[in-house]
Amino acid sequence: MHVSPYLFFNGNCREALAFYAELFGATVEAMFPYAGSPSEEQVSADFRDKIMHACLTVGETHLMASDCPPEVYDKMQGMKVSLALADPTEAERIFAGLSQQGDIEMPLQETFWAYRFGMVTDRFGTPWMINCGKPEMDR
Fold first, then answer.
1. What is the rounded distance in angstroms from the CA atom of residue 73 to the CA atom of residue 13?
2. pTM of this structure
3. Which pLDDT value is given to residue 139?
4. pLDDT in tens, 41-56
5. Buried (b) or exposed (e) across 102-121, using 16+ Cβ within 10 A?
6. What's the pLDDT tens digit per position in 113-126?
7. Which positions fall inside the Glyoxalase/fosfomycin resistance/dioxygenase domain (predicted)?
8. CA pseudo-torsion sign 17, 93, 138, 77
9. By Cβ atoms counted within 10 A, which residue in 9, 40, 42, 133 is the most buried?
10. Nearest CA to 43 among 64, 14, 68, 65?
11. Mapping DSSP to helix (H, G, I), strand (E, B) and coil, where does residue 122 land?
C-alpha cells in the first residue's frame, strides 16, 4: 500500500509541477489536460487546456495533482506536504525556493528533533513542512 498526496490547483498546476520538478530534481511522469479526455465536456472551453491529472515522482513518492475548476476550487487547508531531507544544506536550498513569493509560517531552523525544520506555503498555495531530522530522532 502507498499513500500519495493529491494536490488541487487553481489553474496553475502545470506551472507548479514544473517548478517542483526543477526545485526537487523530480520527474513529471504524466500531465494530461482536460482537452482530449472524457472530461473535456465537463469543463468550460477556456479551462480545457488546464491539467486534469498529473504525476510527479519525487524520490520514491508520487505527488499527484490537477487543476480544479474555479467553481469548485478550495484552497489547500488542514494539511501540509512533509518533505524529509538528509542534508541540512539541501533543506535550506529547498526551503528558500519554496519561500520565494510564499508565506513562511516557521523559519527554517534547528529544533530538538531536527537539524533543520520549517513550514512555508509556496506561491501556488501548497503548504510544506521541510524536515532534516537528526538520526537519533528519526521516526
1. 13
2. 0.92
3. 56
4. 999 999 999 999 999 9
5. beeeeebeeeeebbbbbbbb
6. 999 999 999 999 99
7. 6-130
8. negative
9. 9
10. 68
11. coil
Contact 31, 90 (CB under 8 A): no
Angle subtended at Cα 20 by Cα 133 and Cα 135, rounded to the nearest 5 degrees: 10
User: Which amino acid, one-letter code, is at 108?
Assistant: L
Report the C-alpha gap between 6 and 102 in whole angstroms: 20
Give me 82's grid cell. 512533509
Residue 33, strand partner residues: 51
The mean pLDDT value for 32-36 works out to 96
Q: What domains can you pick out in the chain, each with its CATH number?
A: 6-67 (3.10.180.10), 81-137 (3.30.720.110)
Amino acid at 79: M
Asked whether 89 and 29 are in contact (CB, 8 A), the reply is no
Secondary structure letter of residue 46 according to DSSP = G
